[in-house]
Amino acid sequence: MRTPISVVAAGLAALLTAVPTFAADALYSERELQTAAWIRDAAADGNKAYAILESLTTEVGPRMAGSEGDARAVAWAEAKFKELGFDKVWKEPVSFPSWQRGVERAEVLAPFPQHLVVTALGGSIATADGGLQAEVVAFDNLDALKAAAPETLAGKIAFVNKPMRAFRDGHDYGPTVAARGAGAVEAGKKGAVGLLIRSVGTDSDRLPHTGLMRYDDKVNKIPAAALSVPDADLLANMLKRGQPVKLKLEIGAKAGPTYTSYNVIGEISGTEKSSDYVLIGGHLDSWDLGTGAIDDGAGCAMTMAAAEFLNRNGLKPKRSIRVVLFANEEQGLFGGNQYHDAHVKELKNVHAAAEADFGQGPVYRLDSHVKPQALPLVKQMQQVLAPLGIEAGGNDNSDGPDLRAMNMAGIASFGLALDGIDYFDLHHTPNDTFDKIEQARLNQSVAAFATWAWLAANSPTDFGSMGDYLVGKAKAAQH
Amino acid sequence: MRTPISVVAAGLAALLTAVPTFAADALYSERELQTAAWIRDAAADGNKAYAILESLTTEVGPRMAGSEGDARAVAWAEAKFKELGFDKVWKEPVSFPSWQRGVERAEVLAPFPQHLVVTALGGSIATADGGLQAEVVAFDNLDALKAAAPETLAGKIAFVNKPMRAFRDGHDYGPTVAARGAGAVEAGKKGAVGLLIRSVGTDSDRLPHTGLMRYDDKVNKIPAAALSVPDADLLANMLKRGQPVKLKLEIGAKAGPTYTSYNVIGEISGTEKSSDYVLIGGHLDSWDLGTGAIDDGAGCAMTMAAAEFLNRNGLKPKRSIRVVLFANEEQGLFGGNQYHDAHVKELKNVHAAAEADFGQGPVYRLDSHVKPQALPLVKQMQQVLAPLGIEAGGNDNSDGPDLRAMNMAGIASFGLALDGIDYFDLHHTPNDTFDKIEQARLNQSVAAFATWAWLAANSPTDFGSMGDYLVGKAKAAQH
After folding, report:
1. Cβ contacts of residue A383 below 8 Å, gap of 6+?
2. Position B104 pLDDT exceeds 80
């Protein structure tokens, strides 16, 4: 049995007081690294993430931006931060256009009548009352759709049937999700009356994956929906027979009013430089089909639990640790962009940032985006994290959709890369529920975030946030 | 590369002609066993089952008894038997009361509003218009519900939350499905207004499992539905908090008119005793949520393909091989019972029977229900099948729901036990679709059925069908 945490913490607090001032080029001291190693092991052994996530998924559940669940999630987050003992808890408004799901039905009318399982893509318009009926034309991917001759799709439904492969880093998401984002515009240009895509997912469950799509005001808008993977296979099998396949598609989605939600924030105050902070977090909103356990309840829970773990064990960081639960990531990064805008004059206070938005973990690699002089510190961080199975990454981190605007401005950021091998089995589906969470995976992620946040907050030097190197790099990337 | 089948078949046909008359106590000859071994290996290498099943699930799909899909399935089966070259194809009428699914919705009203995924159990009545609203009372299993004091459930919804464990032989199905069958009656006795069960399944997908339930005319009838496994977990997590949980349940199911479907039958005629036949088959109907790939498209496809394989290769059996695709198994074994009744005077012609209704396989054990004198033949069969990984079972086979009535009368039957370790992940859910079929598993099952059917049809003696031993055993079992 491990030494009781309170005893160790008391000892550590005494040790920490004795640490001398860092030299300008200082590395982490042995004592600091020992503290970090204790955090790593003790947090992996047990923390509150699993209970926090159970609470969020059970007591709130679906919390699509702009829905009733959104407001319940904000209230839950504020209350939970307070219950967990955070020093400061507040919220910052984020406004955005809302979208509402309605009826969604698809059926094959001929030659083989049977129903298909679909879900509207986020942002889709509705079909006319009673739905639309049209023949289906299949494409292997978005490029094939783009290559179709103009007006070849007149009056038809375009069906993009690109399968997605599973990788730990999810690198097939980008090439696959392209059709979800741009398919309706490309199909609309060719005269199509609707878009169907194969779900952007690596499972074979009869559960469709929703997700955001875009329109172009210069192109005729058409309803857009995803078939579950088995339904995409079924439709493809029908089409193989060479006869025209006629579908009926009924989508009742609609735009709602402008809605104001909140980034909800909890902070553990730093003991020395409290205006500087390490930013960790995830996004509080989810899609509506599941209860948002892996996307992104897990990211919220693991970062809340990481900060809470330090605080509960008397480990007061030198700089503050701020947990930001971003509003409406799913429908356009509204929370992350708003956070950037609201804090644009004080981004130098973001000492370092790391977001968790790729499932429950475990964390398998540490990436960074810091000034070169700070790389020895990153190496020390990775060495402490190595016993968790975390390898060294590169210095081009761009992880975290809600950090994108701040990364583009030049903050120092880190990527604690979460293992996404099964993430896209569940992502944006009804199957994103709490029963999929494996406590050991979540605990490892909390250990990584707690250890990293501690070391980042107590670093002997800065990481170059908003300094010449990172700002220059960011500007170069934008050109 | 294997010797072309046609060459081997021609050689075998010559060999078979030369086989001498069997003595009364004869075993299978070495030549017959060699033929069987060739069938085993060649059928495992390739056969039409996968293509047949693709055709059924693509061109027909859901085929719930009494639905439009039922009629399409009957037409498909007749046409497919003819296309596959069966010597005789016919159908026999089967009438039953039909049932129709309607709207199905559940949501938690308090204390944690969110929707739950449910499906009506087959046979359920509807809720009153607008649904019902009531508090939930949970029970660990049917026995706990039965043990509740009279009227303790007055005005409430009973929720039976028994998980099911996965085993190759599915032996946890019986103890778990008890609540699906009898839960509404037992809850109705205590004054409940609705029944919810945890889906009878071994998955954790947000897809509920439907299946038949029963009423008792002496007990108040209440609507009955299944929550998906994740939703049962979610509801249980809410209940753990100790506050009353209030649900809204809306079920729109209703009884339909009496419907006449058909047992569809294809036969390969025997060369010597064509009025005697080996009966193999599965049930043609499915539930409505999926496309009935594993339940029981697989059983239909593997038995059709097994008989077709023999016929296509010129292997003419001495006795006939009859493939019966039973109507409406799911809602009360109507097809099997009707087959028994229609053929009750000629059950002695059922030389041996084996049904496939437990998924795609592989077959892992050979059970029998034969006269003791025939057991040496069963042993020889198993020895031929052993290279497929098929072990010896016992002589108390009762496999095959559609054979139940005939087994109870005293026919000789066999069980080619299908590996059901993942069967209840998909059973009766939308996820029962063709993409779940692994061709190698299906091929092994076809090889087992083809080999067994050949040996059964060519057996040197009878297996005791309707003889004193089996009739006596059946009578004893009924007492």
Report:
1. A33
2. yes
